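Protein Record: Sequence and Backbone Structure Tokens
======================================================
Tokens: labelled as protein backbone structure tokens, with as many entries as the chain has residues.
Question of interest: how does this chain fold, as expressed in backbone structure tokens?

___
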Amino acid sequence: MTPWVLVGLGNPGPVHAGQRHNAGFWALDQFQEMFGFPPFQEKGKSLLSSGKLNQESVLLCKPLTYMNLSDTVVVPLVRFYKLPPQKLLVIHDELDIKCGHIRFKEGGGHGGHNGLRGIHQHLGADYYRLRVGVDRPEHSSQVSSYVLGCPSDVQKKCILDAIHVGIQELPVLFSGNKNEFIQTLHSFQSAVS
């Protein structure tokens, strides 16, 4: 059975752990805890955890490369499992979505996201994405320092609330009810935002 592969994008190491750019890692941590998957184990250039959810095999992957080299982990995984695009879900921070919101996307551009750029280049754009809103800084010159900065406590709660809903609803997506999954996610807004 072809597994679902969930890739959380982020940067490795304790220095980056609390930064907005690591929202994908936060999401996989929530998944692992919520659904009782085994602890992440380092294998090659990844932290991996795998298990079953409602009869579906699921592999969680946190690339240990830096963000802009995520494709060097994701592409070999996709090729090894011969994954169709609809079995790859990449979870990442999104500047164009407000804190406390989470959105599903299939296809389309990478929006300048350094973690998605290489994946697009090698695999095309048809894979699934879970976009975690982190809001945007006032000026485009601040983007790099913003995503590599830590959110305030209020912002972090909003982000984690949105991630919680996205992760909690993944069994709906896995069961093939994509429209119901989208409707639930896109109607959610963290009460604190």
